[in-house]
Amino acid sequence: MRTSSTGRLVTVLLAVLAALLVQVTVLPHFAWEVGGLGVVPDVVLLVVVATALATDTRYGMLTGFFAGLVLDLAPPADHVAGRWALALMAVGYVVGRLAHDNTSDVGRLEADGARRPPLTLVLAAAAGGSFVGTSVFALSGLFLGDSAASVADLLQVALVALVLDVVFALLVVPATYWLFRRLGRERALQGMWA
Q: Rounded to whole angstroms, how far apart are CA atoms 184 and 165?
């Protein structure tokens, strides 16, 4: 899935902002209470996972940093800024490295020339990304004294978040891939007619 750098940037910006809007406006109304904390699927994290699968480790890390920073600054943020930036940057790195270490292209080749990752890879990447992101965020909160929750509560939150993220990955990762493919094709067509 080769897109121009401008097409990738536009895709990432649109995907991150759309995910952020859904995550901070719609999903809190459906929060699952665990250990006194409301748990929602981390749609922004799943966009970072999809970007790391669709591009490479470096782009996944940069997307994770940008997405985490936006998530840190978006209301109703109640934590030290930078915790989500660190967590999602780690997600972009880990998913990108694990997905692309022993293969140059992830997934099967589709009729339109795009590569689509297998479902098992999407679910494993979502589960691993959720575990890494939630763990880094929670541990950084404990380290900075920014979290009043106990370790037992944080473990329950991480488990519920992992399950919710894996379920939502079935929607978010294919949608992000579709956006990459769609904007990449439009940029290629614009280049042909220029």
A: 26
Q: Which range marks the domain in which residue 30 is found?
A: 5-187
The percent helix, strand, coil of the chain (3-state, each to 5) is 75, 5, 20
**Count of domains in the chain?**
1
Pairing of strands 37-39, 32-34: antiparallel
Question: Left if phi > 0, otherwise alpha if psi is -120 to 50, otherwise beta: which for 4?
Answer: beta
CATH code of 139's domain:
1.10.1760.20
- Residue 194 included in any domain: no
104 three-state secondary structure: coil
- Per residue in 139-164, pLDDT (tens digit) is 898 888 877 667 777 788 889 999 99
| Span 32-80, pLDDT tens digits | 877 667 788 999 999 999 999 988 899 999 999 999 999 999 888 778 8
Task: Count the residues in the chain.
Answer: 194
Q: Is residue 58, in this structure, part of any structural domain at all?
A: yes
Asked, for residue 192, whether it belongs to a domain, the answer is: no
In a domain, 78, yes or no: yes
Strand pairing partners for 32?
Answer: 39
